[in-house]
Amino acid sequence: MTKDIKDITIIGGGPTGLFAAFYGGMRGKSVRIVDSLPELGGQLMALYPEKYIYDVGGFPKVLAKDLALDLIAQAMQFDPEVILDEEVREIRHEQDSEVITLVCRSGEYRTRAVVIAGGKGAFEPQKLKVPGYDDFLHKGVYYAVKDPEEFAGKRIVVVGGGDSALDWALILKGKAERLVLVHRRDGFRAHENSVTQLREAEERGEVEVRLFHEVSEISGNGRVEAVTLFDNRTDDRTLMEADAVLTFLGFKPDLGPIKNWGLEVQRNRIAVTPLMETNLPGVYGAGDIVDYEGKLDLIASGFSEAAIAVNNAVRYVDPSARVNPGHSTNMKVFK
After folding, report:
1. I need a surface site. Which of 71, 79, 125, 210 has the fewest CB within 10 A?
2. Start-end ranges of CATH 3.50.50.60 in the chain?
């Protein structure tokens, strides 16, 4: 089954894809969003809806789910077609035609230009390779938090030293009965302000920080009841009662079927030019999935890349269109 032709199809319904859809609508083009998840919002909704985000312009802090809902509302102003729970398996340029076909599970979607904004591709959490991790996954072992209230009054062990580990330790410290942060070394990969807040919380007795420690086993009867920690300097072991183990060890980036689309890939990301062009005509990229010199993995950067990609896609679709349309007050009137 072949669908109607759209001017621009956005692959990815996370923050970058949603802003790209909004911007395409503001430029007066017909837009389609295709996403593999069952709801829009990307990782903001799927992995950490209750986590605060601090580095988006205009918000001193904002819950991930609230930012996602605002981005969805912004994108929906121009009535884009939304296709969820759908996987794009192939991008095909039709012979003797400027139309691009996206081959998906449910059929084919035709478009004049594509913006790939699929985040980091298929995200698979890094596992804690210890006995009990697989046995207690979703039974006390979690790699994401959707509702912090589930952990109220619990004894929690947070594993990791990056932004997510420190952010959740700081969020949960006032809710947990006991909160222990376990990190295998003494250096953190988190923002300096988060490290400062963690140290202050440790001094107040709100968080116990175990540096140079690792989890060697997770145990229990049907659910997590305890973890065994070891000091990687001395190999001393400590059995600690726990109700939940939160592992924030990052995600394995996996481009999945994107690797088979004929795109130039570098460092497991799609290579783009400063105009967000890929090596395929009419196909652009934006967000965490792209790579270029000076790339920053920030939502704020994704917004800028989305605007650059869409403006150049508009020019590709309509060579008479301006690449730089000026400020929003000069563009399409809002509904």
Report:
1. 79
2. 6-123+251-330, 127-247
Q: Which amino acid is located at 112 in the chain?
A: R
**Phi and psi of 67, rounded to 5°?**
-65, -45
Q: How does DSSP assign 51-66, residue by residue?
A: -EE--STT-SSEEHHH
DSSP code for 190: S
pLDDT, one tens digit per residue, over 134-183 is 999 999 999 988 889 999 999 999 999 998 899 999 999 989 999 999 99
CA angle 73, 30, 98 (to 5 degrees): 145
Class of domain 127-247: alpha beta
φ and ψ of 247, to 5 deg: -105, 115
What tokens does 204 get?
Answer: 């107040």
Neighbours of 155 (CB within 10 A): 19
Measuring CA to CA, how many Å separate 279 from each of 183, 276, 283?
Answer: 41, 10, 8
Report the C-alpha gap between 43 and 313 in whole angstroms: 25
User: Residue 237 pairs with which residues in a beta bridge?
Assistant: 230
Helices (H) and strands (E) in the chain, counts: 6, 22
Q: What is the rounded radius of gyration, in angstroms, for the C-alpha atoms of the chain?
A: 22
Distance CA 176, CA 156 (A): 7
List, run by run, the mean pLDDT of 10-residue segments along the chain (335 residues).
83 96 96 93 86 92 94 96 92 85 92 91 79 96 90 96 92 94 94 94 96 97 96 96 94 79 92 97 96 94 97 96 79 52
Six-digit token string for 107: 């059929």
* Superfamily for domain range 6-123+251-330: FAD/NAD(P)-binding domain (3.50.50.60)
